[in-house]
Specification:
alpha+beta; 4 helices
Length: about 110
């Protein structure tokens, strides 16, 4: 029985490709997290602006519009009828999370 010199090559290639697939998968998950954080920031900014319009506390309204995990990652700025939310998306690397911060703003005519 003669063994081919290429025997097992597919297994070696699959093992060598695993780190690349892992990095690509983590990158895609990070992009999804940034997109989700952007949607959350937009909703919170809108909630804060609506609170300004009805004379309520815009910071409290914006915080209530965010899920629990994101409340500590959010910075809320209110100036007149403008509410701006800056939100850091979840990331395994803190430095990456700070660089991928998203912002959203909403504005109403202050009463």
């Amino acid at each position: 029985m003669r063994l081919s010199p290429e025997r097992g090559q597919a297994s070696v290639e699959a093992v060598a490709l695993m780190p690349v697939l892992l990095v690509v998968g983590l990158g895609l998950m990070q992009l999804l997290a940034v997109g989700y954080a952007s949607v959350l920031a937009g909703g919170a900014a809108e909630a804060g602006a609506l609170a300004v319009a009805r004379g309520a506390d815009p910071r409290a309204a914006a915080r209530e519009a965010l899920p629990g995990w994101s409340q500590t990652r959010a910075r809320i700025e209110v100036e007149g009828g403008r509410v701006e939310i800056r939100l850091r998306s979840p990331s395994p690397l803190q430095a990456l999370a700070e660089r991928l911060e998203v912002a959203a703003a909403a504005e109403v005519a202050a009463p």
